[in-house]
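Tokens in:
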């Protein structure tokens, strides 16, 4: 067969080669594309930007990242087209999410909208740490070059900010977009759902529906999945039913993800019979389908129904095993978990990061230092030691096993220190009474750009209370609302009252209790009663005791503290009355004992 003239021409025709390589890339014919590349190499042709871009695209679509990178490195002076091709390849296929960003940072190119879109896509696969560092810088570049209004760039920024946990900036980008497509809406709606901003998720969906009613873009299956997840978390049954009806009436693509969302929604909300009917009617089930239904049964105490469905599952997946394991733990059946774990391993299914995060805090075997070290070793061998949930579980387990150095070492070796990881180490430090270290870590957390949550605030305030650091506690408590916009909840008020009461600042503690926007509970009033007893304030003690009596009349500790307060003040009759009250409600002090 006579070869076409352009294939045998010397020098070769680059446009003809480029056109054919593009056809190979589009059709997925890697072998033919490699033959063309080999021909160019045999003719000693150095790839131009045009040919190089086509070859990079060919190898990228075949997930041959090393080949794509070799082509790029052989281009003498890569143009923006070649740069975009390799950045897209890295964003799609590199196991290192930071690879595209690092390559771009080392370049001197002027990015266009395709460059920024590729970089932002790579952030979508990265952890929150990288997104937090880079999203703002890429946003600034987009504004500087007039690319912030580009729809693809804006959608990428929304996703990157959401991945960094900066939902406020994601919303700002969304609001500034001159035109939004369904990806724009879905990016923000799903980010709200992932961040736990469920009410905002539903509000935004309603805004989208108003736009749709006026002739604008409408929801698709991705929208429905995110909104149903938010409905499930809020137990917003009526709202979820309307979303389900909308999906059915508008003929949205009912793929397996939407079916799973519907089953998960009804199961989470306790509509188990309806969830099971949907489950049985699914045209195709996957592991997530079984996990959603099993989790629904377990969440509502129907352990045997969950186990029965697990035993007859006709698909296999680690998520099903994890759903059963979590359900057993949730229902107090920890003794069954170890046997299930052995059964899972015997079936050829090995624990993953989610499995570890479930079993490490709950299975008695892992409450010992040896057990924690074994779990940690498994995590390291299987590359799960950087999983946020596993790191958090290990920090907590090492701390509870008394090996504080182990908890600190896990934290120090963690590359992506998310809010959960910071909160875990601060809680561990606080539990070991290291108030100064807890304050130092809390300060480092803020300096690292990580916004503390209520767990972190409670941990550091607890440490301050136990160490008598009242001034530090006040400063942190006041910063919650003023600096971080977080309204203190009962736990933080309890910590602050404890700090003031331990320091003898009973008047300040009482004023804080009276200023609370909700009625104090026993966690708040208990420390105040103890403070009154410690510093001999009989009048305050009786006032607090009477309030505690209304809240928890069967707590013997309150009677004992109040009786001792009266006794220490020489009020023997009042002390006896308190003891009589305790006996009158059928309570008695548990006597002490000695092993000597």
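Residues out:
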């Amino acid at each position: 067969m006579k070869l076409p003239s352009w294939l045998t021409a010397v020098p070769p025709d680059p446009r003809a080669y480029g056109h054919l390589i593009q056809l190979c890339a589009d059709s997925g014919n890697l072998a033919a594309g490699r033959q063309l590349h080999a021909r160019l190499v045999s003719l000693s042709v150095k790839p131009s930007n045009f040919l190089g871009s086509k070859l990079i695209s060919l190898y990228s679509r075949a997930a041959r990242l090393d080949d794509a990178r070799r082509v790029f490195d052989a281009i003498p002076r890569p143009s923006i087209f070649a740069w975009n091709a390799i950045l897209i390849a890295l964003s799609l296929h590199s196991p290192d999410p930071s690879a595209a960003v690092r390559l771009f940072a080392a370049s001197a190119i002027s990015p266009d909208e395709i460059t920024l879109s590729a970089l932002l896509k790579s952030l979508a696969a990265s952890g929150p740490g990288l997104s937090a560092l880079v999203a703002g810088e890429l946003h600034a570049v987009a504004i500087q070059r007039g690319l912030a209004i580009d729809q693809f760039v804006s959608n990428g920024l929304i996703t990157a900010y959401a991945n960094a946990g900066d939902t406020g900036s994601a919303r700002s980008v969304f609001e500034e977009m001159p035109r939004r497509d369904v990806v724009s809406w879905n990016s923000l709606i799903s980010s709200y759902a992932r961040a736990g901003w469920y009410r905002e998720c539903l509000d935004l969906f309603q805004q989208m529906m108003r736009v749709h009613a006026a002739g604008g873009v409408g929801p698709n299956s991705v929208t429905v999945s995110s909104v149903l997840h938010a409905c499930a978390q809020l137990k917003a049954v009526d709202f979820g039913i309307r979303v389900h009806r909308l999906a059915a009436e508008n003929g949205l693509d009912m793929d397996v993800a939407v079916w799973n969302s519907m089953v998960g929604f009804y199961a989470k909300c306790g509509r188990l019979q309806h969830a099971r009917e949907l489950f049985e009617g699914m045209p195709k089930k996957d592991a997530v389908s079984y996990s959603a239904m099993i989790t629904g049964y377990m969440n509502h105490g129907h352990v045997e129904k969950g186990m029965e469905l697990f035993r007859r599952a006709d698909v296999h997946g680690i998520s099903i095993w994890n759903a059963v394991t979590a359900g057993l733990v949730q229902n107090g059946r920890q003794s069954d978990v170890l046997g299930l774990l052995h059964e899972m391993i015997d079936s050829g299914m090995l624990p993953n990061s989610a499995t570890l995060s479930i079993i490490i805090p709950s299975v008695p075997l892992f409450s010992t230092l040896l057990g924690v070290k074994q779990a940690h070793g498994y995590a390291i061998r299987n590359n799960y030691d950087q999983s946020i949930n596993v790191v958090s579980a290990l920090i907590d387990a090492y701390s509870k096993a008394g090996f504080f150095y182990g908890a600190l070492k896990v934290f120090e070796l963690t590359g992506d220190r998310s809010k959960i990881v910071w909160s875990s180490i601060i809680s561990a430090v606080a539990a070991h009474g290291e108030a100064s270290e807890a304050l130092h870590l809390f300060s480092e957390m803020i300096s690292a750009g990580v916004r503390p949550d209520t767990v972190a605030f409670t941990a550091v305030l607890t440490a301050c209370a136990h160490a008598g650091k009242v001034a530090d506690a006040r400063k942190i408590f006041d910063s919650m609302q003023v600096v971080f916009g977080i309204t203190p909840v009962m736990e933080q008020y309890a910590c602050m009252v404890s700090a003031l009461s331990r320091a003898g600042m009973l008047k300040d503690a009482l004023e804080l209790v009276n200023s609370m926007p909700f009625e104090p509970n026993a966690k708040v009033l208990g420390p105040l009663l103890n403070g009154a007893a410690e510093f001999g304030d009989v009048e305050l003690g009786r006032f607090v005791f009477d309030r505690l009596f209304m809240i928890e009349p069967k707590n013997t500790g309150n009677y004992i503290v109040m009786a001792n307060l009266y006794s220490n003040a020489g009020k023997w009759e009042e002390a006896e009355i308190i003891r009589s009250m305790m006996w009158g409600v059928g309570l008695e002090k548990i006597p002490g004992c000695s092993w000597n």
